[in-house]
Specification:
- It contains six helices and five strands.
- The radius of gyration is 38 Å and the shape is elongated.
- It folds into two domains: about 1-40, no CATH class; about 105-220, no CATH class.
- Helix 3 packs across helix 5 and helix 4 crosses helix 6 (about 195-220).
- The chain has about 220 residues and is mainly alpha-helical.
- It has helices at about 40-90, 105-115, 115-130, 135-145, 175-190, 195-220; strands at about 1-5, 10-15, 40, 155, 170.
- The longest helix is centred in the first third of the chain and has 49 residues, at about 40-90.
- The chain is about 55% helix and about 5% strand.
């Protein structure tokens, strides 16, 4: 009589035993091997080879699936990066203006765009995704994007007393863009408008001072 049991190694084996023995197996449990039992090695080898081949096939299929999942993951990540870049760069769907502003004309075009409902929505969305732990850092980042390539803007259109940056040419307080920016920061950082405006003015002043300092160092290096 041939019996199948599961050994400690987890592989199926077959045993032959003498029918004259009184020892009987219990269904669902492994039986104890005794001296008069003999292993049918041919059956064992055949079963082992079959299991090994099956495992090889499964392993190959899992490898293919794993490569496919990795490829899909990379594709999704690339799409996500493209979407985030597009959203962060464009002001709105119908605008050709991108940040950073490249010229005074670009700034004037954006100013006109910000006065329309669609342009204002796009501008608010773009400003909102600029990340910074502090409101001041948020303003410094946006100020850099808006005014790095334009004439010098100050809050009043005039230079501050003893300012390093010299004569100002633009009045930032009259720009609708700035009004939208201050409003976005007020919501984003949960402060009142007065606090938001003060931080913008500080960020703009320090930006102008920083630009003047860099230019001064550059001029000194060239002399």
């Amino acid at each position: 009589m041939i019996l199948k049991i599961i050994s400690v190694s987890g592989k199926a084996v077959c045993l032959e035993y003498d029918n004259t023995k009184k020892n009987k197996s219990v269904p669902g449990k492994a039986i104890r091997l005794e001296d008069d039992y003999t292993v049918n090695s041919t059956y064992v080898n055949s079963e082992s080879e079959g299991v090994e081949k099956s495992l090889i096939v499964i392993d190959k299929k899992l490898d293919i699936m794993n490569r496919y999942i990795i490829a899909m993951k990379n594709a999704i990540e690339n799409i996500s990066v493209d979407i985030q870049t597009s959203v962060k760069t464009n002001i709105c769907a119908n605008s050709k203006i991108r940040l950073p502003i490249r010229s005074d004309q670009d700034l004037l075009t954006l100013e006109e765009l910000s006065k329309s409902q669609q342009g204002q929505i796009g501008l608010r969305e773009r400003f909102s995704i600029e990340s910074s732990e502090s409101m001041y850092g948020f303003f410094r980042s946006i100020v850099q994007l808006l005014f790095a390539n334009t004439v010098r803007y100050t809050w009043t259109g005039k230079s501050a007393y003893n300012a390093q940056y010299g004569t100002a040419s633009g009045n930032a307080s009259e720009l609708h863009i700035v009004d939208v920016l201050i409003d976005v920061a007020q919501t984003k950082y949960h402060v009142d408008r007065s606090r938001s405006k003060t931080e913008f003015m500080r960020a703009l002043h320090n930006f102008n001072e920083s630009v003047a300092s860099r230019r001064k160092r550059k001029n000194n290096d060239n002399t």
